[in-house]
Amino acid sequence: MKILLDECLPIKLRTLLSMHDVYSTEYMGWSGYKDSELLKLSEQNEFDVFLTADQHIREHNAIPHNLTVLIIPTNKINLITQISPQIQETLTTVQKGNYYTLALPSEKNSWCKSRFVSETKEENTITRTYNSAKNSPSGTSS
Fold first, then answer.
1. For residue 87, is it within any domain?
2. How many Å apart are CA 140 and CA 79, to the nearest integer?
């Protein structure tokens, strides 16, 4: 999978996604570009996923049909490291032409133990919700 990291994300995220071809906007020479330009360039350069922490990206940008936008809840590498299993799981299920937003537990310490609960879709936006294992319906932990 070919992934473009938005400039709001730390470059160290590449190591967490080492099983994919990951490029940064800086590496591509696209630093400072507007979201709409980045989405267009991502599609033109055959990226599969645009990964960002910009929670407002979908408000003013139409998503290209051959691209997925994955919005994660933070740009802090220590927290991204904790939620990397959820990012990986979501990457395995994405469908092009959609925005995916990870909705995670509010208790940050439980992110690494969170379990997928549900997925909702409204137009082309899919929200994957995770709850902490202690609050899961089955009551089991991972």
1. yes
2. 23
pLDDT tens for 23-54 read 999 999 999 999 999 999 999 999 999 999 99
- Number of structural domains (the chain) is 1
Question: In terms of pLDDT, which residue wins out, 75 or 104?
Answer: 75
Amino acid at 57: I
How does strand 114-122 pair with strand 125-132?
A: antiparallel
* 141 — pLDDT class (breaks 50, 70, 90): very low
Q: Please answer whether residues 50 and 70 qualify as being in contact, where contact means their C-beta atoms are separated by less than 8 angstroms.
A: yes
pTM of the model: 0.77
Distance CA 44, CA 28 (A): 13
Does 29 reside within a domain?
A: yes
Structural domain includes residue 77: yes
Amino acid identity, position 79: L
